[in-house]
Amino acid sequence: MPDRSGRGDRRAVPTSARATIYDIAAEAGVSSATVSRTFGAPAKVRPDTRRRVLDVAARLGYRANPLARALPSGRTSTLALVVPAITNPHFFDIITGAEQRAVEAGFTLVLANTGQSDLSEAAAIERLEPMVDGVMLASSRLDDDRIARFADRTNLALCNRQAGRIPSVTTDQVNGIEQVVGHLHSLGHRRIGLLGGPETSWAGRLRRRAVVAAGGRLGVTVQLLGPFNPIVAGGQSAADAAIGAGVTAVLAHNDLLAIGVLRRLADRGVHVPGEMSVVGFDDIFGADFCVPALTTVAAPSHELGRTAVDLVLASVAGQPVPASTVLPAHLTVRESTGPAPDSRTAPGQSRWRTQSAQTLPPGSR
Amino acid sequence: MPDRSGRGDRRAVPTSARATIYDIAAEAGVSSATVSRTFGAPAKVRPDTRRRVLDVAARLGYRANPLARALPSGRTSTLALVVPAITNPHFFDIITGAEQRAVEAGFTLVLANTGQSDLSEAAAIERLEPMVDGVMLASSRLDDDRIARFADRTNLALCNRQAGRIPSVTTDQVNGIEQVVGHLHSLGHRRIGLLGGPETSWAGRLRRRAVVAAGGRLGVTVQLLGPFNPIVAGGQSAADAAIGAGVTAVLAHNDLLAIGVLRRLADRGVHVPGEMSVVGFDDIFGADFCVPALTTVAAPSHELGRTAVDLVLASVAGQPVPASTVLPAHLTVRESTGPAPDSRTAPGQSRWRTQSAQTLPPGSR
DNA sequence: TTGAAAGCGCTAACAC
DNA sequence: GTGTTAGCGCTTTCAA
């Protein structure tokens, strides 16, 4: 004798057992299969019986149990988003975009924060993978092989990362870099620094190559500095390194780091952009109201999140998935970049103190 | 004839069917129940058989199917966090805290963003509730009755909100307000404005009462302004209203609004804190590097998230849950508050221009 | 169009 | 300790 009410005493509260398709079937005088079809494939049910079932269901306050539904079908209508650092506003926007798109498509978003470690990232995927229909990996720190292996057994999409032929959505880092270096070059900078982030950052590696290439083309010397922790606190050593390197402009791994650099520079009495220009990446919340407002390569973060979801959704639906979507980046010039000190290439604009950063003894202010 | 491999062609990829407890049972020469016990209640299995099962499981790469596990047991090891505005950094911190605690406890966090509307909030709960063991509601816009009804059928905890006897974690708004009003009073302010947020905000209502009370006690006149949209953009009209009201200091509903007020005030040429002091709530990312740096009532956001999870975890475990946890708020004084214009109560500190805000014609700069 | 029945992978009595 | 046996609530052939 099936006990369909033995659930109430395990959970904290539920007293009234929830209605199942069997309850509805009994009430409506149909089989449970018909009830199931009414919700899963309404077209296969004659309109009037469908009506009847729906009425009873409404009266009983029926709501399908997603777990029970997922077990035989294998589809959970849930997607997982794995991010390395939920504290970075850039990921906030990605999350928001992903969440919106997921909900639109009738999916639920599960979030996993992995804290920059590839171990916990793998663990998170491992844990989530069996309970979701697909997973989006943002700025994954995993190596290509590992990613490929995950892609082998689940619907995967990459965000801010490319790996083999796995569906991905990224911003056009190369073009973004070209815009920045061009911008800086036109302001008279001939010696710039790249403040690197984690070595495992795919975008970081890509940018490094792009900066060197663009610099070579334009006659701009590029100093590779770092790696630095890509958070505000990391700006301290990054700024010090920049000063030590004698560059007139720096490209920070991301806006968080750039903001940290701005603060350290202010503490050390180095004027931005008078003595040093600073550029970030992402255009996060706060980039427009820090002081000076940050010039940055804006990433379409929201769109990144949405697109990543679209990618795995297509894969879930068995549709062909474009291997790689590249979204445009665009340079947002604000107040943290200006003519290079002593610049003669931007005549009439060198209104800044001309004491150049190079000449500052390391610890001076 | 059970088909234990008919799963591969429905999903996009999985070629090798995943091992089940039956596969292990067969290999290890035990029953499926023993395998189940090995993982669910290892103490009930003799050490050597346990070993054998574990070995086979490892060899087969067995990982339990959480869905199948959840169906009979009714426990999904998943928690849902419902937030009104994921774009508010305050909630990021809450999310981070909640996520960490959840993972520590072996739970997965599902996130739902409801966009300030009580309709979508209810819908989100409705949707998530059947697939999670409990839900945390942050800054819920729902009325007490509705919340009580949800609490009736699921393990619920409130964050930034109190309602009846439902477990909740909040910050001590009243004390926070007292600190702010005291701070402002000691700086010579005698006429302050409260820039209200959504009418449905529980914290907002609480603060309103507290401000009026504290003001009355200290002889500070309080102007209730608003409601305003609690985002940066809302700061525009809020700032204008503050200027129009002739107050010398304002308490913004949250930091987002306060930052917007700061910007608008700067645009209109009103000096902060010289002509107007501004206080926010939450102490979000950016509050320390906006200009002037924001004086704010810091909420232990991270802790809020953690505690909310603890609350529902206790409830899930059937343990007694404290009805209401109140975390201390503390005033973080930065640069956006200073002596009131024309103040004589803070002698020697009124070094600011004394043109008071009141005298500014509405549209002037 | 509808129903019967066999699972989905796992848990949890209940026996042995 | 371990095995047997019912389910959990739903989907999905296969017949009728």
TrEMBL record, chains A, B:
Region (Disordered) location: 333-365
Pfam name, any one: Peripla_BP_3
Domain HTH lacI-type stretches: 19-73
InterPro entries: HTH_LacI, LacI/GalR-like_sensor, Lambda_DNA-bd_dom_sf, Peripla_BP_I
Record keywords, A-Z: DNA-binding, Transcription, Transcription regulation
Polar residues bias spans: 346-365
Transcription in keyword set: yes
Keyword Transcription regulation found: yes
GO terms, molecular function: DNA binding
Name the UniProt record assigns to this protein: LacI family DNA-binding transcriptional regulator
